[in-house]
Design brief:
The protein has about 700 residues and is of the alpha/beta class. It is built from 19 helices and 26 strands.
């Protein structure tokens, strides 16, 4: 009864009908009945729509956890456009659990010295306005994380993810249907290219997804029956539209044209003269941001403001793009190949719901949130969505957790998406402060465009509108001409001084956000909130200099990293991170304790409770540095008959460094329970009271179930 009373205090455990899902569930058995989630071999457990990095990572994680899934992708081939390219610290930690992925990324990415800087200039071979270095010594020391950030183009990442899936026996099928399996297949471990999700209908035990595809020039449809549908199909998500979920936020912050081109000549020049990741170029002929995806290979993407309808995509022919590139470079290039040109719009929006239709339809990645590309949060947040979601889906489909555990995905990830949206917008505004300081205020440019579109200018012929717009912009770009922008000109000198101040105070576009990347915390969801947790303002969006990450053991936080050495094991000489204590291959909670009697009693109680919940549990005992010299049988006598434990010893960086429990702001009388996604689910500052009751309460709240004692 006490456990049930505790459960009722947590609203997420008792599912409610979605406010947005258009399906009528009243006439049939509720999807919240756990019996409707498994046991039918004709129903695919999980169907993922969208084969971008988020969908592919989710398919890898689910498959490794024993969940059958398949992927639909509406495009016929995988994009070769570089798109996202910055992989932050937390995402790289997720990738450490995917066999060899981090090592491949690190070996294939450019050396960090070639991309650590943002360069501001009048042309790539002209006057330098300033340089910002985004790497600090601690970024290389791996004190707060066992892995560093990376600069690696999205299409290259997709290739590596597909290699991982190939090892898991996934197959990629072309859109013509010639190799697609028989109609009766449940589509397990298949990626169906050229298949667009066009309908979603409810059934007694799941959803029926209609997918259209072309075969021999004819448009056909196949239906796939699944228990859970995950929409990771990008910013224009069909899944989101079909279930009627709205986006909230700001639309059309900026429209741009993205020009993907190759030039080894330019790459070699920058490699030796001005290496960097981003180049912000302001001159009287053109304004743009050049993304150096790979200087050695000479692969670039040029982003330029785009003002339709006066400007059209057809205006950006390969020849026009080459001339614009030459203007921004400052000289002609001996080799240049424009690969493709794409328009796109910058939005800052978050879906009103991430989960709907009685937990059957879920949004992840850009389908759930759209950020400005300022700080690289888009792909990273999406991959972390997948990391949060995978273990919850697996626990549900294996009957370990209540269906309502999927509601905790929205409870945890939506606030993070909202925060990251605000952070990206703030960072975008910081980026705009640089041209504004030079007299090129983007707000004014956008206002001029709106006036031409909706004011007096809208009645002018289209050709005259275009000439007027380009004429006004040309006059504006005079502000960065050499006669005006120099130290000898009073106005130019003032503007350059303001620009230097922006760089010095860290108020320009930032690349890294350690406190937010590693320090984000879930405040409610599949956790047991800690009443003793420190009251910190985790929602404050930073302005200016980046904030350092501060390790925390508060429930909802990512488990802090510290180096350890395994004791009494074949790998006793091998260093491992505390993050390595959590398996990437199985559904397992980890209880971290110190080698004292009360904690061992808690460990034994936790094993018994976990067994009752049918949950795998590992107990990790952290010994002080130097304990290996006097350790004999370790924790074996204290934990018998339980065997799934590991003794590890702290490896402190120096004699004055904090111990594990000090870093966690706890004493060795405490305990920490970690979820399969490396986030802390529960902690005790002191192991008091009945350990069995405490662990029963913790697992009940996390899994949304009442403890059922197993018969002996």
């Amino acid at each position: 009864m006490e456990a049930m009373k505790s459960l009722r205090r947590w609203k997420w455990i008792f599912p409610t009908k979605s406010k947005t899902c258009p399906f009528d569930f009243s006439s049939k058995k509720s999807f919240s009945d756990a019996q409707g989630w498994k046991g039918d071999n004709e129903i695919l457990p999980v169907l993922i729509v969208g084969a971008g990095p988020v969908g592919l990572v989710l398919s890898i994680l689910l498959t490794r956890l024993g969940v059958k899934c398949a992927v639909l992708e509406k495009t016929k081939i995988f994009s070769q456009h570089p798109q996202a390219h910055f992989i932050n610290n937390r995402t790289m930690e997720v990738f450490r659990k995917l066999d060899g992925l981090v090592e491949e990324i690190q070996s294939l990415q450019p050396p960090v010295d070639l991309w650590r800087k943002f360069v501001y200039c009048t042309s790539l071979s002209g006057y330098s306005l300033g340089t910002v270095d985004h790497m600090q010594p601690q970024d290389f020391e791996r004190v707060v994380s066992p892995v560093s950030v990376a600069h690696f183009s999205q299409y290259k990442l997709t290739r590596l993810l597909l290699k991982q899936l190939e090892k898991l026996n996934f197959h990629v099928y072309t859109c013509d249907g010639s190799q697609v399996p028989n109609k009766g297949s449940t589509w397990e471990r298949e990626i169906l290219m050229g298949h667009e999700c066009i309908s979603i209908d409810r059934t007694a035990h799941g959803v029926m997804v209609g997918a259209s595809f072309l075969k021999e020039g004819k448009k056909l449809q196949r239906n796939i029956h699944c228990h859970i549908l995950v929409g990771s199909d990008g910013a224009g998500s069909n899944v989101r539209k079909l279930v009627g979920i709205d986006m909230k936020g700001e639309r059309d912050l900026q429209k741009l044209v993205s020009v993907h081109f190759l030039s080894r000549d330019l790459g070699q020049y920058l490699l030796h003269q001005r290496p960097g990741m981003l180049f912000f170029i302001f001159n009287p002929e053109a304004i743009g941001v050049l993304v150096a995806h790979d200087l050695n290979q000479g692969e670039f993407v040029l982003q330029m403001p785009f003002y339709p309808p006066q400007q059209r995509l057809e205006d950006f022919s390969s020849q026009v793009c080459e001339e614009l590139i030459f203007n921004l470079v400052g000289h002609k290039l001996v080799d240049i190949a424009v690969i493709d040109v794409k328009p796109w719009a910058m939005h800052a929006e978050v879906a009103e719901n991430f989960v709907c239709c009685d937990n059957r339809v879920i949004l992840a990645g850009d389908a759930a949130h759209r950020f400005p590309p300022a700080g690289g949060f888009g792909m990273n947040t999406g991959i972390q969505d997948a990391h949060n979601l995978a273990w919850k889906i697996a626990f549900l489909l294996k009957g370990i957790a209540s269906p309502s555990i999927l509601q905790t995905y929205e409870m945890e990830r939506r606030p993070i998406a909202v925060f990251n949206t605000e952070l990206s917008v703030q960072n975008f505004k910081a980026a705009m402060s640089v041209p504004a300081a030079l007299g090129l205020n983007p707000t004014i440019a956008n206002s001029v465009h709106r006036v031409i579109n909706s004011g007096f200018g809208s009645i002018l012929p289209s050709g005259l509108q275009k000439a007027l717009l380009e004429g006004i912009f040309a006059i504006g770009r005079v502000q960065v001409s050499q006669p005006l922008l120099n130290e000898n000109n009073p106005l130019g000198s003032t503007r350059l001084a303001k620009l230097r101040s922006i760089f010095y105070e860290g108020k320009s576009l930032q690349l890294q956000f350690p406190a937010e990347d590693l320090g984000f915390r879930y405040l409610e969801g599949a956790i047991v909130p800690d009443i003793s947790a420190e009251a910190r303002d985790t929602k404050k969006v930073p302005i200016g200099w980046r904030r350092d990450y501060i390790p925390s053991s508060e429930p909802g936080s990512r488990l802090p990293h510290m180096n350890m050495r395994a004791l009494k094991a074949p790998s006793s000489e091998v260093m491992l991170s505390t993050l390595d204590l959590i398996s990437g291959h199985k559904l397992e909670f980890v209880l971290i304790i110190a080698p004292i009697k009360e904690s061992y009693d808690l460990g034994c109680a936790a094993f018994k409770v976990a067994s009752g919940f049918n949950v795998s549990l590992k107990v990790c005992i952290i010994w002080p540095q130097g304990s290996s010299n006097e350790l004999t049988d370790g924790s074996k006598p204290a934990l018998l008959p339980w065997e799934n434990y590991i003794d590890v010893e702290e490896v402190k960086r120096s004699s004055s460094a904090l111990s594990w429990w000090e870093m966690c702001r706890m004493t060795n009388r405490g305990a920490i329970l970690v979820r399969p996604d490396e986030h802390i689910a529960w902690r005790a500052m002191d192991v008091l009271g009945d350990p069995f009751v405490e662990m029963e309460r913790a697992f009940s709240l996390i899994l949304g179930r009442v403890y059922q004692k197993k018969e002996s």
